[in-house]
Structure prediction request, 467 residues.
Amino acid sequence: MSTPVSITTPPDHAPIVLAVVGHTNTGKTSLLRTLLRDPDFGEVADQPGTTRHVESAQLLIGDGPPALTLRDTPGLEDSMAVLDYLDRLVQPGERPDGPERIRRLLDSPEGAHRFEQEARVLAGVLSCDAALYVVDVRDPVLAKHKDELSLLNACGRPVLPILNFTRSPDSQAQSWREAMARLGLHITVDFDTVAPPLDGEEQLIARLSTLLDSRADTLRRLNEDLTEQRECRRRDALTCVAELLVDAAALRIRCDPDEQARTAATQALRERARNREQRCVHALLKLYQFKRSSYPDRVLPLEGERWGMDLFHPMALKAFGIQVGKGLATGAAAGATIDAMTGGLSLGAATLLGAAAGGLWQGAGQWGDRLMGLLAGQREITIDDPVLKLLALRQLALIRALERRGHAALTPIAPGTPDATLPEALPDLLHEARSQPQWSASGTAPITDERREQHVRRITDALAQAL
Prediction:
C-alpha cells in the first residue's frame, strides 16, 4: 500500500504553487498567457490537446522573490474511465481517502500508460497548493465535467473554478455557477482570457486568498503590486499620448506661398504626423506587452491643416520678454505691443536684426528667423485642431482596448469608434504647445526641456480624466 499523502502548509516565503487544470481546449494556456502578460507562453490553438506536457511560470512581487508558481497541465479527457479504475483499486473493507486513491492510480501500470495524461495532471495537483479549474462556459455542463471535479476534489487541494469566455454571446455562465454550487464549489471567478475585466487579476487573487487563508498576506501583497502595476501602466500610456499630442501640436513646416510648395509641405506634414502616431502606437503595444501584429498599421486620415505663424500666443510673446495681461484681447494686444516696440514702423528686416543684436527682445535670436520668414512672405503649416482631437481619441481608444485585451487573443484589435469625452482643458493646452515649435521632436530622440516636460505632465493629468 502506498504512503498516505499529507497536506502541509508551505512556509510564508515559499511561492504559492497553482496547477491550472481543466478539460481539453478550455483555455488553460490562454489563462496563463493573460496572467503572465506573455503572448508567447505555451501554445494556443483552436484544437484539442494542444498542451501535452507541464509548463511553469512565476509571478513576482515587485523585484522580490516569486509569489506564485503557475503550472500549465494537459487536458483531462477520460475522467469517467479514471474514476471507474480508481474503484477497482480499492480492496474490500478498505476506505482510503481521496489523495491515497489518487496515489494508487499514479503507482499503477494504467497510470503510466492508458491514463498517462490524467496521471500527469493529478500528480501536478497533489504537489500544488491549489488548482485553478478552467471551464469554457460556452459548453453545456456535462457529466464529464462533474467527473473531472470529482477527481480534482479527491486530491485534497482547494479548487477554484475559472469561468472562461464569459463575454461570448454563447455564454452559459449562470448554469455553470449553479452546477459548481451543487458540487460544493461556491467561490468562482469570471475571467474571460480574451477580454478580461480591468481588475480581473485582482479579483482572481482575492478569491484565491479566501481558499488559501494561511497565505492571505502573500496574496494581499501580490494584489497590491498588481494594482500598482496597472496604475503605472496607465500613467505611462497616457504620458505616451501626451508626448504625441505635444509633438503634433508643435509640429510646423515653413514654406513659400505658391501652390506647389504648399502641396509639398502638406504631404510632408501628414507623413511626419502619421509616423509620429505610429511610434506612439508601437510604444503602447510594447508597454502592454502585445505584439505589433495585434494592431495593424492604420493610416491616420489627416485632412486638416492650418496656416499661420502663431507668433502672438502669450507663450510665444513671453519668449520675447513681452507680458500680456489676462484681461486683454490676446491677438490685438500682441499686435499693438509688437508695433509699439518697433516705433510704429513696419517689421522690417533691419528692425528685427537690430532688435536681435541689441537684445531688445529676450528670445529674439530664437524667434527672429520665423519673423524674417513672415516678412519674406513665407507661411507655416500646422496640424488642425480636429486632427489633434482625433489623435487623442484614437490613442485613448487603443489604451482602453489594450487594458481589456487578454494576451491569448488571436484576432487583431479592431479600431472601433473613439467614444471618449476629451477634457475641457485639452484645447487650451494644445494651443499653448502649438506656440512652441521647439517642443516638437523631429525624430525619435527625446527633447530635454523642463517647460515641455511640465506641459506633458499637465496634458497627462487632463487625459486621465477621459479614462
About this structure: Residues 16-211 form a domain with the Rossmann fold fold (CATH 3.40.50.300). Strands lie at 16-22, 55-60, 66-72, 130-136, 159-164, 189-190, 252-255, 305-307, 379-383. The chain has two domains: 16-211, 234-304+384-466. DSSP finds 17 helices and nine strands in the chain.
